[in-house]
Amino acid sequence: MSKRVAIVGIGCSGFRTTSTDLSYREMIFEAATKCYEDAGGIHPQSIDSFVASSEDFMEGISIADEYVPDQLGAVLKPVQSIAGDSLQGLASALMQIKTGQQSIVATSAFSKVSNLSHYEKVAAYATDPAYIRPLKEHPYFIAGLEMNRYLHESFSTREQCARVVMKNRYNALSNPRAVYGAKVTLEDVTCAEPVSEPLGQFDISGHLDGAIVILLASEEKALEMTANPVWIKGVGWATDTPNLDSRREGLGGALYAKLAADKAYEMANIKSPVNEIDFAEIDDTFSYKELQHLEALQMCGFGEAGKLLEMGCFEPGGDLPVNVSGGSLGAGYLHEANGLQKVMETALQLRGEAGKNQLAGVETGLAFAWRGIPTATGTAVVLSNRL
Amino acid sequence: MGILEKITRNVDNRYWDPGVGAFPVKNRYTAGVAGQRFFEKIKEDGNIIGTRCEACEITYVPARLYCERCFKRLEEKDWVDVGTEGIIHSFTVVHKTLEGETKEKPTLLAAIQFADGMLIHRMGECKEEEVYIGMKVTAHFKAKPKRKGGINDIDYFKPL
Questions:
Q1: Tens of pLDDT along A244-265?
Q2: Could you give phi then psi for residue A32, rounded to 5 degrees?
Q3: A133: how many CB neighbours lie within 10 A of its CB?
Q4: What are the boundaries of each domain within chain A?
Q5: ipTM, 2 decimals?
Q6: CB distance from B61 to chain A under 8 Å?
Q7: Which class would CATH give A5-117+207-225?
Q8: Which residue out of A13, A56, A148 would a mutagenesis test of the B interface target, given it has the greatest number of B Cβ atoms within 10 Å?
Q9: How close is the nearest chain A Cα to the Cα of B14, in Å?
C-alpha cells in the first residue's frame, strides 16, 4: 500500500460558456487525446483502467456510465463511474494503483451545463423532497443562508467576500483556460443584482462547459513516462449529513472541508499546513466559500481569512497564493469536473507550466473541491513535485 | 468539422432536438414513518414535534426515526413536543424564482432553530430590515381545513 502515484498526463477541452458544436463525449475525446499526448503519446490500449466522474441530467442520458468507454479509448477495459466530484474519482483511481491492481489509470470529468434548459430546477431537485423542495424557492437560497450565518459567526464582511471575486476574476485575466477574467470593482460586486441576499449575482461563479482527463501512474511507470511527474501525496474526503437542519456546525461551517483536509494532511505527513503548503486551488463556488474553506482547511484561524485577504496574503505575490488560476469565480464553474480543474491548475503550477500565472519555487500545492449546493461533501488532495 | 477544424458559426451547430431531450420527471416520495407523524402533527394539532436521542443529547427537528450520530433507532418514548416558537439561525432575501427570473416581490426565508434542529421557511408579518439572527419567531399555520399534511401547512413564521 506504500506505492507512490503521480500525475503523468493532463488534457482539457474547452473551456467556454456554450458549446453547441461538440457533444460531451466528443469533448472528453478531445481532452483524452491531449492528455495521452501529454503523457508521452501513450495509446489507451496501454492504460489499465478508467474512472469517469459525472452526474446524470448533464448527459441527457440515463445510466450514463454505460456511455463512458468509447471517448476514453476504454472499450472492453475496466471502467468505473463515480457519481460525485471528480476529486472523488481521482481518489478512486489512486486507490486502484495503490492496491497494486493497476499501474496506469485515466480519470475524466466534464461539464455540459449549457445543454440544460433549467439548471435551477435540476439543482432544486437535489434538495430534500419533504422539507425543502415544497417551498419552491431558487436553490441558491441555501447559499444565502450559509453566507449570512458564516459572516455572522466569523465577523467576516460582505466587502471581504466581494474582494474574493475581485482577486479571482483578476487572476483569471492571465490564465488562457479561464473564461470569466475581468477587472471587477468592489461596487460591481456589492451593488450587483441580488440573488439571495447577502449573495449577489457576482458572488456566484459562472457556468462553464469543458472536459478534463488526467492520467495517473505508479512510481515505476511514472518515472519511465515523464520527466516532470506530479506526486499525489495525500487525499481525503468527507460528507456531512444531507439534512440542512442537523449539520454539526450549523449552516455557517464547512466541517466536511476540515475532515477531508485532516485525512489528506495525515497521508501527506503534513503537520503544519500553513507552513508546508505553498499555494492552494480551493473551492470558490460562491465568494464566501473561499474564506470559509480557507479557515476549514486550516490555512488560517477561524475568522481570519477575510482580514488576511485584505492584507494581500492570498494574492499571487502573497504568503499563500489562493486560486491563482482564477478559481471557479474567474475560470468558471465546471460542476462535477471542478475537482479535476483544481488538480489540473495545481499540477501545471508544480510542473512550472502555468504561464503568466506561474508562481516561483513552488513544491507543494493543495487542491480542494466542494460538491456544491445542497451538498456538504468535500475532497482535498495534496500534490508535490518532490517525491 | 469539430475536432480537426473548429466550428465558428452558430448556424453550423447542431443541438439535440429538445423534443427528444425533454425528461419529464414525475415520482412520489415517501415521507417515512417519522416524516408522516411530523406532518400529521402539524396538520391535526398545529404543533411541531421532534425526536430526542438521550445518549447524544440531541433533539431532531424535523423528527427522525434514527439518530444520525450514534445510529440508534429512536423509540416511542423519544418523541417530544418542541412547540411552535423558534429562533432565527440565519435568513436570506430571495430575489430569483425557480425559473431564474427576478421576483416582483422578494421572499424572506429563514432557518429557524427548534431544539437542536431547524425548519426552513418563509417569514411573514415583518419587514426585511426587522429580521435578525437570534430573533424569536412563531409559526403561523394555515386554517385547519386547508392543511394537507406538508411543510406548507405552515404559512410562514412571524416575530413573537
A1: 999 999 999 999 999 999 999 9
A2: -65, -40
A3: 17
A4: 5-117+207-225
A5: 0.95
A6: yes
A7: alpha beta
A8: A148
A9: 6
